[in-house]
Amino acid sequence: MSYHILLVDDDKLLRRSLAFNLEQAGYRVSSAANAEDALSFARRDRPDLVLLDIGLPGMDGLDALRNFKEQTKVPVIFLTARRRELDEIVGLELGADDYITKPFSFDVLAARIKVALRHVDGQLPALSEAKRVIAGDLLIDLGAHTATVGSRSIELTPREFDLLHAFALRPNQVLSVDELLAQVWGADFTGEPQVVYVHIRWLREKIESDPGHPQRIITVHGIGYKLEIPDF
Predict the structure, then answer these.
(1) Same structural domain for residues 164 and 106?
(2) For 133-169, what is each residue's pLDDT tens digit?
(3) What residues have CB less than 8 Å from 103, skipping those under 6 apart?
(4) Buried b / exposed e across 115-153, counting CB within 10 Å, b at 16+?
(5) pLDDT at residue 46 above 60?
(6) Alpha helices of 93-143 — where are they, by DSSP H?
(7) Residue in 90, 29, 28 with CA at minimum distance from that of residue 54
(8) How far out from the chain centre does Cα 44 lie?
(9) What pTM was computed for the model?
(10) Residue 185 belongs to what domain range?
Protein backbone atom coordinates (compact mmCIF):
# COMPACT_ATOMS: atom_id res chain seq x y z
CA MET A 1 0.00 0.00 0.00
CA SER A 2 1.21 3.51 -0.85
CA TYR A 3 0.27 5.95 1.92
CA HIS A 4 -0.80 9.44 0.90
CA ILE A 5 0.96 12.27 2.77
CA LEU A 6 -0.20 15.88 2.54
CA LEU A 7 2.66 18.32 3.14
CA VAL A 8 1.67 21.87 4.13
CA ASP A 9 4.46 24.45 4.37
CA ASP A 10 5.04 27.89 2.86
CA ASP A 11 8.77 27.22 2.38
CA LYS A 12 9.03 26.22 -1.27
CA LEU A 13 12.51 24.71 -1.01
CA LEU A 14 11.53 22.65 2.03
CA ARG A 15 8.38 21.40 0.28
CA ARG A 16 10.30 20.27 -2.77
CA SER A 17 13.05 18.61 -0.76
CA LEU A 18 10.65 16.80 1.59
CA ALA A 19 8.31 15.76 -1.23
CA PHE A 20 11.23 14.28 -3.18
CA ASN A 21 12.54 12.34 -0.19
CA LEU A 22 9.08 11.09 0.80
CA GLU A 23 8.37 9.90 -2.74
CA GLN A 24 11.73 8.12 -2.79
CA ALA A 25 10.65 6.42 0.44
CA GLY A 26 7.54 5.09 -1.31
CA TYR A 27 4.88 7.57 -0.23
CA ARG A 28 2.41 9.39 -2.46
CA VAL A 29 2.84 13.09 -1.71
CA SER A 30 0.67 16.16 -2.25
CA SER A 31 1.77 19.63 -1.21
CA ALA A 32 0.23 23.00 -0.44
CA ALA A 33 1.66 26.39 0.53
CA ASN A 34 -1.20 27.37 2.85
CA ALA A 35 -3.84 25.78 5.05
CA GLU A 36 -6.81 26.87 2.96
CA ASP A 37 -5.53 25.08 -0.15
CA ALA A 38 -4.54 22.05 1.92
CA LEU A 39 -7.99 21.67 3.46
CA SER A 40 -9.62 22.00 0.06
CA PHE A 41 -7.25 19.39 -1.35
CA ALA A 42 -7.93 16.99 1.55
CA ARG A 43 -11.66 17.13 0.80
CA ARG A 44 -10.99 15.93 -2.74
CA ASP A 45 -8.23 13.44 -1.99
CA ARG A 46 -8.13 12.22 1.60
CA PRO A 47 -4.57 11.93 2.95
CA ASP A 48 -3.41 9.26 5.38
CA LEU A 49 -1.22 11.74 7.27
CA VAL A 50 -0.64 15.51 7.29
CA LEU A 51 2.70 17.25 7.84
CA LEU A 52 1.64 20.72 8.94
CA ASP A 53 3.77 23.82 9.43
CA ILE A 54 2.57 26.12 12.20
CA GLY A 55 3.67 29.49 10.83
CA LEU A 56 1.52 29.59 7.70
CA PRO A 57 0.20 32.66 5.86
CA GLY A 58 -3.53 33.22 6.30
CA MET A 59 -4.99 30.48 8.50
CA ASP A 60 -2.24 29.39 10.88
CA GLY A 61 -1.33 25.83 11.71
CA LEU A 62 -3.24 25.75 15.00
CA ASP A 63 -6.55 26.63 13.33
CA ALA A 64 -5.71 24.30 10.46
CA LEU A 65 -5.18 21.44 12.91
CA ARG A 66 -8.69 21.86 14.30
CA ASN A 67 -10.11 21.81 10.79
CA PHE A 68 -8.11 18.75 9.75
CA LYS A 69 -9.19 16.84 12.85
CA GLU A 70 -12.86 17.69 12.21
CA GLN A 71 -12.66 16.99 8.49
CA THR A 72 -10.40 13.95 8.13
CA LYS A 73 -9.44 12.63 11.59
CA VAL A 74 -6.07 11.58 10.17
CA PRO A 75 -2.76 11.84 12.04
CA VAL A 76 -1.14 15.27 11.97
CA ILE A 77 2.55 15.94 12.64
CA PHE A 78 3.42 19.55 13.36
CA LEU A 79 6.53 21.11 11.84
CA THR A 80 7.71 24.09 13.90
CA ALA A 81 10.75 26.32 14.11
CA ARG A 82 9.74 28.20 17.23
CA ARG A 83 9.91 26.77 20.74
CA ARG A 84 7.25 29.19 22.02
CA GLU A 85 4.71 27.76 19.58
CA LEU A 86 5.69 24.23 20.54
CA ASP A 87 4.99 25.01 24.20
CA GLU A 88 1.62 26.43 23.19
CA ILE A 89 0.72 23.26 21.30
CA VAL A 90 1.60 21.03 24.22
CA GLY A 91 -0.23 23.28 26.68
CA LEU A 92 -3.46 23.51 24.68
CA GLU A 93 -3.45 19.82 23.77
CA LEU A 94 -4.99 20.56 20.42
CA GLY A 95 -4.67 17.02 19.20
CA ALA A 96 -1.52 16.91 17.10
CA ASP A 97 -0.21 13.35 16.98
CA ASP A 98 3.42 14.45 17.06
CA TYR A 99 5.70 17.40 16.40
CA ILE A 100 9.20 17.91 15.09
CA THR A 101 11.30 21.06 15.32
CA LYS A 102 13.17 22.58 12.39
CA PRO A 103 15.82 21.91 11.28
CA PHE A 104 15.44 18.15 11.35
CA SER A 105 16.95 15.18 9.55
CA PHE A 106 14.78 13.25 7.14
CA ASP A 107 15.57 9.99 8.95
CA VAL A 108 14.08 11.41 12.16
CA LEU A 109 10.95 12.58 10.34
CA ALA A 110 10.60 9.24 8.54
CA ALA A 111 10.65 7.41 11.87
CA ARG A 112 7.97 9.72 13.30
CA ILE A 113 5.81 9.19 10.22
CA LYS A 114 5.97 5.40 10.60
CA VAL A 115 4.83 5.66 14.21
CA ALA A 116 1.93 7.98 13.31
CA LEU A 117 0.79 5.70 10.49
CA ARG A 118 0.23 2.82 12.88
CA HIS A 119 -3.06 4.57 13.68
CA VAL A 120 -3.98 4.45 10.00
CA ASP A 121 -3.21 0.71 9.83
CA GLY A 122 -5.82 0.08 12.49
CA GLN A 123 -8.45 1.88 10.41
CA LEU A 124 -7.73 0.26 7.06
CA PRO A 125 -10.76 -2.05 6.90
CA ALA A 126 -13.12 0.85 7.62
CA LEU A 127 -11.42 3.05 5.05
CA SER A 128 -11.28 0.54 2.21
CA GLU A 129 -14.30 1.94 0.39
CA ALA A 130 -12.98 5.51 0.67
CA LYS A 131 -9.86 4.27 -1.11
CA ARG A 132 -11.75 3.22 -4.25
CA VAL A 133 -13.07 5.59 -6.89
CA ILE A 134 -15.40 4.35 -9.64
CA ALA A 135 -16.29 6.45 -12.68
CA GLY A 136 -18.10 4.48 -15.37
CA ASP A 137 -15.86 1.55 -16.32
CA LEU A 138 -12.87 3.21 -14.66
CA LEU A 139 -11.83 1.86 -11.25
CA ILE A 140 -9.08 3.49 -9.20
CA ASP A 141 -7.86 1.73 -6.07
CA LEU A 142 -5.84 4.22 -4.05
CA GLY A 143 -4.73 1.66 -1.48
CA ALA A 144 -3.27 -0.70 -4.08
CA HIS A 145 -2.34 2.21 -6.38
CA THR A 146 -3.91 0.49 -9.38
CA ALA A 147 -6.22 1.62 -12.16
CA THR A 148 -8.35 -0.42 -14.56
CA VAL A 149 -10.47 0.52 -17.54
CA GLY A 150 -13.06 -2.18 -18.12
CA SER A 151 -11.10 -5.37 -17.51
CA ARG A 152 -7.79 -3.86 -18.61
CA SER A 153 -5.16 -2.91 -16.05
CA ILE A 154 -3.30 0.33 -16.81
CA GLU A 155 0.33 0.93 -15.90
CA LEU A 156 0.64 4.56 -14.76
CA THR A 157 3.40 6.70 -13.33
CA PRO A 158 2.62 8.27 -9.93
CA ARG A 159 1.77 11.63 -11.54
CA GLU A 160 -0.39 10.04 -14.25
CA PHE A 161 -2.21 8.11 -11.52
CA ASP A 162 -2.88 11.31 -9.55
CA LEU A 163 -4.08 13.07 -12.69
CA LEU A 164 -6.51 10.29 -13.58
CA HIS A 165 -7.71 10.25 -9.98
CA ALA A 166 -8.41 13.99 -10.14
CA PHE A 167 -10.59 13.46 -13.20
CA ALA A 168 -12.36 10.44 -11.71
CA LEU A 169 -13.37 12.41 -8.63
CA ARG A 170 -15.32 14.83 -10.85
CA PRO A 171 -16.51 12.90 -13.93
CA ASN A 172 -18.14 14.89 -16.73
CA GLN A 173 -17.01 18.14 -15.11
CA VAL A 174 -14.52 20.49 -16.74
CA LEU A 175 -11.30 21.01 -14.78
CA SER A 176 -9.17 24.01 -15.66
CA VAL A 177 -5.42 23.70 -16.10
CA ASP A 178 -4.93 25.78 -12.95
CA GLU A 179 -7.18 23.42 -10.97
CA LEU A 180 -5.24 20.41 -12.22
CA LEU A 181 -1.92 22.05 -11.38
CA ALA A 182 -3.08 22.86 -7.84
CA GLN A 183 -4.63 19.45 -7.21
CA VAL A 184 -2.09 17.14 -8.84
CA TRP A 185 1.22 19.02 -8.79
CA GLY A 186 0.78 21.44 -5.90
CA ALA A 187 1.77 25.04 -5.32
CA ASP A 188 5.29 24.62 -6.67
CA PHE A 189 4.04 24.25 -10.26
CA THR A 190 1.75 27.28 -10.47
CA GLY A 191 2.22 28.94 -13.85
CA GLU A 192 3.65 25.84 -15.54
CA PRO A 193 0.73 24.60 -17.69
CA GLN A 194 3.00 22.64 -20.02
CA VAL A 195 3.33 19.85 -17.45
CA VAL A 196 -0.44 19.34 -17.64
CA TYR A 197 -0.43 19.26 -21.45
CA VAL A 198 2.36 16.67 -21.54
CA HIS A 199 0.78 14.40 -18.93
CA ILE A 200 -2.64 14.61 -20.60
CA ARG A 201 -1.01 13.36 -23.80
CA TRP A 202 0.74 10.51 -21.98
CA LEU A 203 -2.43 9.55 -20.13
CA ARG A 204 -4.44 9.47 -23.34
CA GLU A 205 -1.88 7.13 -24.87
CA LYS A 206 -2.59 4.66 -22.07
CA ILE A 207 -6.38 4.83 -21.66
CA GLU A 208 -7.74 5.85 -25.08
CA SER A 209 -8.44 3.40 -27.89
CA ASP A 210 -7.35 6.10 -30.33
CA PRO A 211 -5.24 8.76 -28.56
CA GLY A 212 -5.46 11.00 -31.63
CA HIS A 213 -9.25 11.10 -31.26
CA PRO A 214 -9.85 10.88 -27.51
CA GLN A 215 -13.24 9.76 -26.25
CA ARG A 216 -12.50 9.78 -22.52
CA ILE A 217 -10.32 12.78 -21.67
CA ILE A 218 -11.89 15.56 -23.69
CA THR A 219 -10.41 18.99 -24.38
CA VAL A 220 -12.83 21.85 -23.71
CA HIS A 221 -11.17 24.64 -25.65
CA GLY A 222 -10.37 27.75 -23.68
CA ILE A 223 -11.40 26.13 -20.39
CA GLY A 224 -9.66 22.83 -19.65
CA TYR A 225 -10.33 19.10 -19.76
CA LYS A 226 -12.95 16.65 -18.56
CA LEU A 227 -13.29 12.91 -18.09
CA GLU A 228 -16.31 11.87 -20.12
CA ILE A 229 -18.08 8.76 -18.90
CA PRO A 230 -19.36 6.66 -21.82
CA ASP A 231 -22.94 5.39 -21.94
CA PHE A 232 -23.23 1.60 -21.73
Answers:
(1) no
(2) 888 889 988 777 889 988 899 998 888 888 998 899 8
(3) none
(4) ebbeebeeeeeeeeeebebebbebbbebbebebebeeee
(5) yes
(6) 106-127
(7) 90
(8) 9
(9) 0.61
(10) 131-227
